[in-house]
Design goal:
Layout: E1 2-10, H1 13-28, E2 34-40, E3 44-47, H2 60-66, E4 69-72, E5 80-82, E6 86-92, H3 104-120, E7 127-129, E8 132-138, E9 144-155, E10 158-166, E11 186-187, H4 190-194, H5 200-215, E12 219-223
Parallel strand pairs: 1-2, 1-12, 3-4, 9-11
Antiparallel strand pairs: 2-6, 3-5, 6-10, 7-8, 8-9, 9-10
Helix pairs in contact: 3-5
């Protein structure tokens, strides 16, 4: 089974959302194989279906000054932030087609596993935090810090939306929000954890390979 991968560079959130909706229908009709979009967004704050407005702590003046767009989204999860230096991945998978199975919780755990394997390629141990979605690492003094957020939507068993892995993101931007509505723990990045700078394209290739392995795809195809 093929996993088609498109690395798209920096794409405005709404444009990427429109592309996803188109690809969801194409996947449903069987016109395309499972597809993984890998990209970055300009500074953007998104609200998931279960977001609380109080988790946006920045003023409108601050958002305007920093040129941060705010977009309501139909994905799951709470508020999150996107910015350059963050690898965003949108899997367009048909969970009713082998080797998948139509199980939302299983899908979430596999996305987490693929991200954990991606981090392992950089000798960084990622792990699941019971009660929280996403991937976590040990921060200062062993305190958990979130390195990858996940917010998905599954419609008629076709997946879209996905994950955001902080590679070299400006972490100061997360002060504009309460990330994922979690006040007790902070966020981190691959750069902060390893002290090394990696390109989004390189990390994207590692992520694509990890997704193919984790989800049982036997052929990885990069397309422009």
């Amino acid at each position: 089974m093929i996993l088609r991968v498109q690395q798209l560079g920096i794409v405005p959130y709404q444009q990427a959302w429109d592309l996803q909706r188109h690809l969801v229908e194409e996947r449903r009709k069987g016109h395309i194989p499972d597809t993984l979009l890998l990209l970055q967004h300009p500074p953007t704050i998104t609200f998931g279906r279960f977001s609380s407005p109080k988790n946006l702590v920045a003023s409108q003046e601050t958002l305007k000054r920093l040129q941060v767009e705010v977009v309501p989204s139909d994905r799951g999860g709470d508020i999150t932030l996107h910015a350059p230096g963050q690898l965003v991945g949108y899997p367009i998978f048909d969970l009713q087609s082998p080797p998948h199975k139509p199980d939302v919780h299983n899908y979430l755990r596999l996305v987490e596993e693929a991200l954990i394997r991606t981090l392992a390629a950089y000798s960084l141990k990622g792990w699941r935090f019971p009660g929280y979605t996403g991937v976590w690492v040990d921060g200062p003094e062993g305190r958990p810090e979130k390195i990858a957020a996940i917010g998905i939507r599954i419609h008629r068993w076709i997946t879209h939306h996905g994950f955001a892995l902080n590679v070299s993101t400006d972490l100061a931007l997360f002060q504009l929000i309460v990330p994922c509505g979690i006040q007790s723990y902070g966020v981190t990045s691959l750069l902060r954890q390893t002290g090394h700078s990696y390109s989004i394209e390189e990390v994207g290739r590692q992520a694509a390979a990890a997704f193919a392995t984790t989800f049982g795809h036997d052929n990885l195809e990069f397309v422009s």
